[in-house]
Amino acid sequence: MKEWFGCVAWIAFSTATLIASADLQIVTRFGPGPGFFLRVLSIVLLALGLIQALLLFLGQRRAAKSHDGPSPENLTAILDTDENEEVLKGDKASTVRFFLLAVSLFGYALLLEPLGFMVATVALAWSAMVLLGRRPLWSFVEAVVAIFLAHLLFSNLLGVNLPTASLAPLASLHL
Amino acid sequence: MEGLLGLMQGFEVALTWHNLLFALIGCMTGMLVGVLPGVGQSAGMALLIPITYRLDPAGAIIMLASIFYGAAYGGTITSILMNVPGESESIVTTFDGYPLALQGRAGTALSISAIGSFVGGTATTIALAVVAVPISRAALELGPPEYATLMMLGLCLAAGLLGSSVIKGLLMVVFGLLLSQVGSDPALGMPRLTFGNPSLIDGIPLLAIIMGFYGLSDVLLSVFKSFDMDGGAKKITRLLPTGADLRESAGPIARGTLVGAMLGILPGMASAVSTFFSYALERRISKTPEKFGKGALPGVAGPETANNAFANASFLPLMTLGIPGSAALSILFGALMIQGITPGPLMFRDHPDVAWGLIASMIVGNGMLLALSFPLIGIWVSILKLPANLIGAIIIVVSMIGVYTVQSNPFDLLALATFTVVGAGLKWLNYPLAPAILAFILGKPIESALGQTLNIYQGDATVFLTRPISATFIAAALLIILSSSIRLYRGSRQASANDSGAH
After folding, report:
1. How far is it, in rounded angstroms, from Cα B176 to Cα B357?
2. Strand runs labelled E in B148-207
3. Residues 8-27 of A with CB under 8 A from B
4. Is A130:A100 a contact under the CB 8 Å cutoff?
5. Other CB atoms within 10 Å distance of the CB of residue A2
6. First CA to last CA across chain A, in angstroms?
7. How far is the C-alpha of A160 from the C-alpha of A149, rounded, in Å?
8. Would you call A158 and B450 a contact, using CB atoms and an 8 Å cutoff?
9. Which of A93, B209, B224, B229 is the most buried (most CB within 10 A)?
10. Rounded to an integer, what is the distance from CA B272 to the centroid of its chain?
11. A54-101 residue pLDDT tens
């Protein structure tokens, strides 16, 4: 099921890029136009997605492929080792925490300038620690101390211009 | 001779107190990220990139390169003491390293690894210094068709050599190339896939992709993983090897150096292949092959040496051809670009201080690793007890601050969040990310080289097949994809036959 999801995603993505690049010129009088490689790559991606779907279809009719891990007796299995070999054990709570972590990243991106560096980053650090499994109250203290130190490092030592809050009540506190 | 003079010039740069300090910080950070669960070499380098902005180019690159080879040694510690390989190239080390630790010889295995890494790394770096300038000059003679096909060969090596699916590797290459298409096109400056967003005119921020794929996505996925690291490390009794250990390891170290150096110069080659070859070679020529897998010292000495020799040799295609061979080197490539230095044949002419300083710093860094590895092993083992959730939170905050500080543009943070989710999704679906990063970095140079070729030869694409060098590169790329597909197909058939036999 997971593999099929991948195939569908690639086919959808390549179709979307084909549509998005429809207005771009393929050839100009100077040679390949801005849409040339984009179009070629989208078509290749679409073809690869379809080939993967076909292989998956054929593979499901054969016996499922089993993998013995690499060992001195099975040395060539090292070549079959994938970049991400770790087993992910998902339950409902972990999935919720995963999505909340993702939301906190997007939230930080959107709220950094309105809330300012201090407030937004403390909120991010605290939510990350809690969602990753640390105790809420103690994490808050750790987050405040860590972000104060990070502010000193980036702003004072490295001279980085960190944003202060643009929202009225926080801006008046120079946060 | 020119290379050795350049190396002397490099030592003047590498031996300044601040560059020594950067190399030390890099080596320590590298060993730390190699040891820590869930933090890889690439993530460690990505996390430190923002801190390097305000450093001079030589110092910044020296620090990042030190992380690169420091992490290779950090992975050895967990492989030998805990049977936990950090990255695929360390898997081989567990075969004999952990049995040695069980026999009470963990210290010997670690010290032989450190000595082998030092010898392999240093010898390869000296060879790199000698051949780098001639290869850079030869690279300048390559025309656009050769360059384009050489880069594509590198991508095919990255996609097809390692892993359980060639098609997944190829999909990720094309995905990376497509991502590189976002922004203005190199010929006419027309915006592509920007959807009217001015922040995308310069393309997707490199750091957002690197940190999203390699730093943050692992942290997000860590909620689905369990880290059982406590109390698993074996005790170290005797650290220094005996004369007999050194004599037994001398041959494997010499052969490992050759294997690692020869494979490392191939762009796109995976480091795990060098450790695999070295182990297979040692077992084949050993008088006691039955000891392999049960605690044979040559089974640790050879692959560990090959791993470090490979890491140092892989700088050659980056510095002479501008082709990074791995995800970690792609990050170094990105860091060089951020510093205003284009890796490639002109690097030795235009930025000799950085190029030679980097090469000399590798010798200094390897010496530091050798010196640090013995006294600090206890500290690395205790660091393993740090809570993974705290490390994860630190990575999240440092990555977000780091990406924002580059351009002070919140859009970069949105891009980072997006690629974190995309990276996590791809990892969950078991797609390799290294080919995508490599393709993203090489996308624009490939497009330029292909465009120039088609311009020069008036749209005649057969030129790639009629010029001997580019035809050779294309044939080699096809051979790699075909041979890997056949290997995987046979493996699958064998597994199917075994399964049906078992039922």
Report:
1. 31
2. 183-184, 191-192
3. 10, 13, 17, 20-21, 24-25, 27
4. no
5. 8
6. 48
7. 14
8. no
9. B209
10. 10
11. 988 887 544 444 456 677 777 777 777 776 666 677 788 889 999 999
What are residue B48's phi and psi, to 5 degrees? -90, -10
Percent of chain B, pLDDT > 70?
95
pLDDT tens-digit map of B441-498 = 889 889 999 989 988 888 888 999 999 999 999 999 999 889 888 887 877 777 777 7
Residue type, B278: S
A127–B contact, CB cutoff 8 A:
no
Instruction: Report the amino acid identity of residue B281.
Output: L
What pTM was estimated for this model as a whole? Answer: 0.86
CA–CA distances in Å: residue B5 to residues A35, B130, B356, B362 = 47, 10, 10, 16
Cα B84 to chain centroid, rounded: 19
**Dihedral (Cα; A33, A38, A40, A41), 10-degree rounding:** 150
Burial of A135 (0-12, 13-18, 19+ CB in 10 A): exposed
For residues B400 and B404, give the distance between their C-alpha atoms in angstroms, rounded to a whole number: 6
Determine contact, residues B345/B136, Cβ cutoff 8 Å.
Answer: yes
Task: Dig out the tokens for B93 from the structure.
Answer: 């080390």
B282-335 pLDDT per residue, tens: 998 988 888 888 889 999 999 999 998 998 899 898 888 888 877 788 888 888
Asked if residue B42 has pLDDT above 70, the reply is yes
Tell me how far apart the alpha carbons of residues A118 and A89 are, in angstroms, rounded to a whole number: 35
**Paired strand residues for B4:** none
Helices (H) and strands (E) in chain B, counts: 22, 2
Q: How many residues are recorded in chain A?
A: 175
- Which conformational region is residue A58 in: left (phi greater than 0), alpha (psi within -120 to 50 degrees), or beta? alpha
Q: Nearest by CB to A109, which of B222, B410, B431?
A: B410
Among candidates A10, A79, A108 on the partner chain, residue whose Cβ is nearest the Cβ of B413: A108
